[in-house]
UniProtKB/TrEMBL annotation:
InterPro entries: BAH_dom, BAH_sf
Name of this chain's protein: BAH domain-containing protein
Disordered as annotated region, ranges: 1-82
GO MF terms, alphabetically ordered: chromatin binding
Compositional bias of kind Basic and acidic residues: 41-55
Residues in BAH domain copies: 93-212
Length: 259
C-alpha cells in the first residue's frame, strides 16, 4: 500500500464547515553554508541543523492562496469542475508549476516534506489545491525487506513518482534541489546550498534506483533527464568521479570514492 502523506484540509472562509488551516509549527529549513572538513565538523553541523529545526510557537498563515492570471485548462463537470493555473500567490510569494517546495509536516518533531508542484487547481469553493510529486528522506523511505535506508548526507533526498493533492496553505516556502547522477561530483554546500538527489525511490515496490539507471518508461525517463539538465544549467557541469559500493544493495551507493 502506498505510503500517503496526510494534510489537514484548509478552509478559505469562516462560513465553510471545514477544519482550520494547518498551523505554522516549524521554522524555515535552513541549509548548511559550510563544507565539512572532518568528522567533527559534520557532527557539529548535524547538531546545528537539529537546533534550527526546533519547533517555535505556532503562527497562523497571513492569507489565503489565490490563483494568478487566467486558467490554463479546466477539468471535471458541475460541482466537480476544477480550474487549473500556472501559478498562485500565498503570503506574498508567487509559486509556479515545477517549483520545489517544503510542506509543513504532520506532527511535532518531524522534518518538513519536500515536493515539486505538478498541478495548481481551484474548485468551486475557492480552495487552491496543489499536486505535489514527493521527495523522500532516506530515513523515511521503507525497504522492501523491512527497515529504511541509511542517511549518508544531510542534504540527501530520494526522488519519486508518488503524487498527492495538498492544500496550498500547507506550503512553508520554496527550496532548491540539485539532481546529480551517481557518477558526478556533488556540488559544494558553500557554493550551491540545497538538497541533493542521486536516486529514485519506488514508493510502491519499495526499491531504490540510481538516476543513471535506464529502468523507467519513456515519459518518466524524460522527466528525470529534464531535472538533471536544469541542475547543470543552474550550477554548471559537474566533474566525474569513481565510486565503490558500500553495501550489499547495488542501488545504495551514496558513499563514493572521490577522485
Amino acid at each position: 500500500m502506498v505510503n500517503r502523506r496526510r494534510f489537514i484540509r484548509v478552509a478559505v472562509s469562516d462560513d465553510e464547515d471545514e477544519a482550520s488551516r494547518p498551523r505554522r509549527t516549524r521554522k524555515r529549513l535552513r541549509l548548511f553554508e559550510e563544507e565539512e572538513d572532518d568528522d567533527n565538523d559534520n557532527k557539529n553541523e548535524e547538531q546545528q541543523l537539529q537546533k534550527k529545526e526546533e519547533v517555535p510557537e505556532s503562527l497562523q498563515p497571513a492569507e489565503d492562496a489565490t490563483p494568478i492570471g487566467k486558467p490554463i485548462r479546466f477539468s471535471g463537470k458541475g460541482k466537480g469542475k476544477r480550474s487549473h493555473y500556472e501559478s498562485f500567490m500565498f503570503n506574498g510569494i508567487e509559486y509556479t508549476l515545477e517549483d520545489s517546495v517544503l510542506f509543513f509536516p504532520e506532527g511535532k518533531g518531524q522534518k518538513p516534506y519536500a515536493a515539486i508542484i505538478k498541478d495548481i487547481k481551484q474548485g468551486s469553493n475557492g480552495n487552491v489545491i496543489v499536486t505535489g510529486q514527493w521527495f523522500y528522506r532516506p530515513e523515511e523511505a521503507e525497504k522492501k525487506g523491512g527497515g529504511n535506508w541509511e542517511l549518508h548526507d544531510t542534504r540527501e533526498l530520494f526522488y519519486s513518482f508518488h503524487r498527492d493533492d495538498v492544500p496550498a496553505e500547507a506550503i512553508m516556502h520554496k527550496c532548491v534541489v540539485h539532481f546529480a547522477p551517481i557518477h558526478k561530483q556533488l556540488p559544494k554546500r558553500k557554493d550551491h546550498p540545497g538538497f541533493i538527489v542521486q536516486k529514485v525511490y519506488d514508493s510502491v515496490g519499495k526499491k531504490l534506483w540510481r538516476l543513471g539507471d535506464k529502468v523507467y518508461e519513456d515519459t518518466k525517463q524524460r522527466e528525470i533527464d529534464v531535472l538533471i539538465h536544469k541542475t547543470l544549467q543552474r550550477i554548471g557541469e559537474l566533474p566525474r568521479i569513481e565510486f565503490v559500493e558500500t553495501t550489499d544493495d547495488a542501488h545504495d551507493q551514496m558513499k563514493s570514492k572521490r577522485v
